[in-house]
Amino acid sequence: MLDWMPLAELIHSRFFTNTFPSWDRAQPMRVLGHNGEINTLRGKVNWMKAREGLLKCKELGLSKNEMKKLLPIVDASSSDSGAFDGVLELLVRAGRSLPEAVMMMIPEVWQNDKNMDSDRKALYEYFSALLEPWDGPALISFTDGAIFSNKVINGPQDKGNCDMCRRWN
Predict the structure, then answer these.
(1) Is 80 buried (19+), middle (13-18) or exposed (0-12) by CB count in 10 A?
(2) CA-CA distance, 142 to 9, in Å (whole number)?
(3) Which of 8, 16, 36, 60 is deepest in the core (most CB within 10 A)?
(4) What is the pLDDT of residues 58-101, one digit of tens each?
């Protein structure tokens, strides 16, 4: 057995809200820790299912057989955290940076923010044309495992104003 020390750990203990707790839904996920609830989960899963036919093997760097293994993007039996994790991983593997993918999935409240920079608003407007927001109330912490910094590990605040978390270094 090899001895190893992880660079970072995301730990989450949960109570159930919109999915019943079970071992196959237990965290950790691959790139995130999630506390809260993704609203309208069924709608998010349906939108991702509708997009599966638009995915291009070449642009994702996958063979047709690898693409078949990828689908469905969201397993219908997964928890809201598992669904979010699957979509986030797809965005990252398709070439988005982890922070950019999280900004796409959990945008700041930007539409009526008069103090937000116009370039940032334009970015969120562009993202909104690509993907529906995965709104909470929820706290999402994420890491790519390679770099441990505030730029890679974050807990963005969602529209429900949920921002409770602890971080130890």
Answers:
(1) buried
(2) 10
(3) 36
(4) 767 778 788 888 788 888 778 787 888 888 888 888 888 888 99
How is residue 38 written in tokens?
Answer: 């993704």
> What was the pLDDT predicted at 33?
65
The interaxial angle of helices 80-93 and 98-105, nearest 10 deg, is 130
The per-residue DSSP string of 21-40 comes to --GGGPSP-SSEEEEE--TT
Q: Using CA atoms, how far apart are residues 109 and 18, in angstroms rounded to an integer?
A: 24
Average pLDDT score over residue span 12-27: 59
Strand-pair partners of 35: 139
**Residue 58 in 3-state DSSP?**
helix
Q: Which of 65, 72, 87 is nearest to 132 (CA)?
A: 87
Q: What is the mean pLDDT of the chain?
A: 73
Q: What are the tokens at 164? A: 């409770």
Query: Tokens in use for 41?
Result: 């989960």
